[in-house]
Amino acid sequence: MVASSAGGVAQTHGKEGTEGLSLREVSFDAPWQWLDLGWRDLWATPQIGLAFGAAAFAGAIFITAALFWLQALPLLLPLSGGFLLLGPMLAVGLYEVSRRRELGESPGFGEVWHAILRAPRRLSLFGVILLLIYFFWVRITFLLFMLLFGTNSFPPLPDFIPTLLFAPYGLGLLVAGTVTGGVLAATTFSISAIAVPLLFDRRADPITASVISIQAVRLNPKAMALWAALIGAATLTGFATLFIGLVVTFPLIGHATWHAYRDLIQDER
């Protein structure tokens, strides 16, 4: 259970793995500090962080190539939401790096790989939940296109933006897709903002971790809105640079997410 108490703090109790945890109220500009700490972690072990970033870059290239082969490249933007949805799960190894650095250790690939392999079943279950949300997002994207474009094929990429901005059905797709994607993104962010690091660090079940994450967002709406905006900006930067920027922005956000968790959670163990 998570119950709100006076002073802007949410206490956790009654669930295995969350005893002794309480949520802190942080300042509005706290996300900048998380980024600063994440930046330090990234360049303290660049070989690990950049390897994760290179994997994100390769994944983006693969998705783009698949869409190009299917002649559906305009769907790249909505499908890129998968990075926002699945990113917390893909960054588990980065959490281990930041955790060990807090202990004064210098982790290597061996420790990171071991941490990924020993990720508990509950973490895998949460990953399945995020994956189902992503599949739902993809399904909604295709459904909206079919409803608004009918049996027409995807317009060529040079014509896609003008179609979105000036054709009635294009504007409908832009508005409906933005609203739907925004709702799904906000919901997913709320349940996963600190849930994955919590599942990685403590023996908590996915439902409890999601509730605690939602409580953290509710307790710090301004700071978490800024954090969500920074994550979105980092992701857009990665895509705007033909995915090359993901080599740096993905591990940076991964490390910073660990520090967000550590700042928002007060651990009295």
* Rg (CA only): 19 Å
Task: Give the number of DSSP strands.
Answer: 4
| Terminal-residue CA separation | 18 Å
Give me the secondary-structure category.
Answer: mainly alpha
Estimated helix fraction: over 70%
Descriptive tags:
269 residues; mainly alpha; 13 helices; globular
Q: How would you characterize this protein structure?
A:
It is built from 13 helices and 4 strands. By secondary structure, it is mainly alpha-helical. The protein has one domain. It has a 4-stranded antiparallel β-sheet with strand order 1-2-3-4. Strand 1 (2-5) and strand 2 form a beta hairpin. Residues 1-8 have low confidence and may be disordered.
What is the strand and helix layout of this fold?
Layout: E1 2-5, E2 9-12, E3 21-23, H1 30-44, H2 46-69, H3 76-79, H4 81-90, H5 92-102, H6 109-117, H7 121-149, H8 157-166, H9 168-192, H10 195-201, H11 206-219, H12 221-240, H13 246-264, E4 265-267
Antiparallel strand pairs: 1-2, 2-3, 3-4
Helix pairs in contact: 1-2, 1-13, 2-13, 4-7, 4-9, 5-6, 5-13, 7-9, 8-9, 10-11, 11-12, 12-13
